[in-house]
Design brief:
single chain; 9-stranded mixed β-sheet; 6-stranded parallel β-sheet; globular; binds NADP nicotinamide-adenine-dinucleotide phosphate
Length: about 500
């Protein structure tokens, strides 16, 4: 690892404390940071280096996946952290920052590199990038990189404008757009798993796959983010970025040992093959939902309109389900069903692949309708389950589900931010969103945003603690499919094994 100065805008914020410092600490424990690694934290509030280091120490004690031992190694980790006051719009503050960075670099033998991490609100991305350029901070002797958090734009025109502005200061190769779902270990496994297993590689197409279901369900509501969320909704907050990225990662077919460029090229191809939605079919292919009062884990919770800070009569979407089609030789005819929502029954992100059963007999034998499924559990648990339909040896003529399970223990697995920060430091952009993907995603989503703005798509309601509006089940039912649920939690308690259950019986 080369000598690098990590310049962190938003160093006193929530994301830095909950994710970035714990990630850096775990990279440090794994010896994945250079000996000449230093962090300059930036924020408006006045802090000395020592107070900043104390804040970083508290954050790693509170949030690191691995224990923080009170040893010399923690002190040597914290020594890398310094703090500067910086107001985003103040050009002088960037000159002071440049001086500080140059002082730090002076003591380092090798060519110094600079990584600028923007953990601040999106309204600051453009002024920060331009000030980096104008102050001379961008003239690093080694490489320079810009790591940028979501959201990348509010719609297609704003994303295009932002990209144009950023490109005045950084080239596309220097911009690392974080979509933290791409850092999740199970998502990073998707293409490798398919490439390196001939059985799956052979089945990964429309001849054998009946449909793909991608779910990201949260149990939380809007919490303290009402003001932000009511202007964004599930479509912008989750669907345009995380959900479409999961679809791309699942649908790409890559040769073994592909380069980052190949990964990004194939993802772009998937997005280009996605059949566009138009005014006439958005209403039938997209389900918009908003939660009403309900019960989650035995506790009553208010509906969206009763949440503090939500304006009366808001028609914001807290749930989206959609049916997507990829028009390429591998996936033509395979529906991809995607859904995401707040205040759902369980917290779970997963991908379920349902296989076709061409030899299926039409019979009334018990268990005849058990599907063959491959399930990738992405979070909060990580694992892969293969469900196979098998004859029930105890009951002749009946079928039962057989499960092959692999689950990992979360403490041993690097967090998404660890993977992503490490990749950005190494200069590997495979798991970052390229501008082509971001732009194509906004292009695909824009007609839906327009239809929502014009209120031409019905807003369905669903009770908090449910699986979303009934209309999202109908989206699949008309193709003869239904959502498959991984009821790991409940089934574990009851039967001690992971079971798949039909949504209708759940
Ligand atoms: P936050 O807790 O509100 O922190 C904002 C940071 O920006 C603070 O360090 C604040 O410093 C700094 N800041 C605000 N105004 C500034 C200004 N005018 N000049 C200089 N610094 C300024 O926000 P966050 O939750 O950490 O989120 C940061 C970014 O990450 C946002 O773009 C958000 O959308 C994105 N994100 C967050 C999460 C998450 O889990 N939190 C997840 C995904 C993406 P002072 O307080 O010292 O002024």
């Amino acid at each position: 690892m080369e000598a690098t100065t990590f310049v962190l805008f938003g160093a006193t914020g929530d994301l830095a404390r909950r994710k970035i410092y714990p990630a850096l600490y775990n990279l440090f424990l794994d010896r994945k940071l250079s000996h000449s690694f230093s962090v300059v934290g930036l924020g408006r509030r006045e802090l000395g280096d020592e107070a900043f280091q104390a804040m970083v120490e508290k954050s790693i004690r509170d949030f690191s996946r691995r224990e923080v031992n009170p040893s010399a190694s923690v002190r040597s980790f914290l020594k890398a952290f310094q703090y500067n006051v910086l107001e985003v719009g103040n050009a002088e503050d960037y000159l002071k920052l440049l001086q500080r960075v140059e002082q730090l670099e002076a003591g380092k033998g090798s060519t110094p590199n600079r990584m600028f991490y923007l953990s601040v609100g999106p309204e600051f991305f453009e002024p920060i990038a331009l000030n980096i350029k104008e102050s001379g901070l961008g003239a690093a002797k080694g490489w320079k990189r810009l790591v940028i958090e979501k959201p990348f734009g509010h719609d297609l025109p704003s994303a295009q404008k932002l990209n144009l502005k950023l490109s005045e200061a950084f080239s596309e190769e220097e911009i690392y757009r974080i979509d933290h779902y791409l850092g999740k270990p199970m998502v990073q496994e998707l293409d490798v798993f398919q490439q390196t297993n001939p059985v799956l590689h052979a089945l990964w197409n429309n001849r054998y796959i009946a449909n793909v279901q991608i779910t990201a369900a949260e149990t939380v509501g809007v919490e303290e983010r009402a003001g932000y969320y009511d202007h964004v909704g599930a479509l912008r907050d989750m669907f345009q970025n995380h959900m479409l990225q999961l679809l791309m990662m699942l649908a790409i077919r890559l040769p073994k040992d592909s380069s980052a460029d190949e990964v990004r090229f194939k993802k772009k191809e998937v997005m280009e093959s996605l059949e566009p939605l138009e005014e006439g079919n958005i209403g039938s292919e997209v389900i918009r939902g908003q939660y009403t009062a309900g019960v989650i884990k035995g506790k009553p919770v208010p509906g969206y309109l009763a949440e503090p800070g939500i304006p009366a009569g808001s028609v914001n979407d807290t749930f989206i389900a959609a049916r997507l089609q990829i028009d390429d030789p591998f996936w033509k005819g395979v529906p991809f069903y995607i859904r995401t929502g707040k205040r759902m029954k369980e917290k779970s992100t997963r991908i379920v692949i349902e296989f076709k059963e061409p030899l299926k007999q039409v019979s009334s034998a018990e268990g005849e309708d058990i599907p063959n499924l491959l399930v990738f559990e992405i979070s909060p648990n990580e694992g892969i389950t293969l469900q196979l339909k098998a004859r029930d040896p105890q009951h002749k003529g009946k079928f039962k589900a057989m499960h092959i399970d692999f689950h990992t223990s979360s403490i041993e697995i690097p967090e998404a931010y660890e993977n992503l920060i490490h990749d950005a430091l190494r200069g590997d952009p495979s798991f970052f969103a390229h501008w082509n993907e971001v732009e194509l995603s906004w292009k695909w989503v824009q007609p839906i945003l327009n239809a929502f703005a014009e209120n031409t798509v019905p807003l369905h309601t669903y009770a908090a603690g449910s699986h979303g509006p009934a209309e999202s089940d109908q989206l699949l039912a008309r193709d003869g499919h239904h959502w498959w649920l991984d009821a790991a939690g409940e089934a574990d308690e009851e039967a001690g094994e992971v079971a798949m259950r039909d949504a209708a019986n759940f």
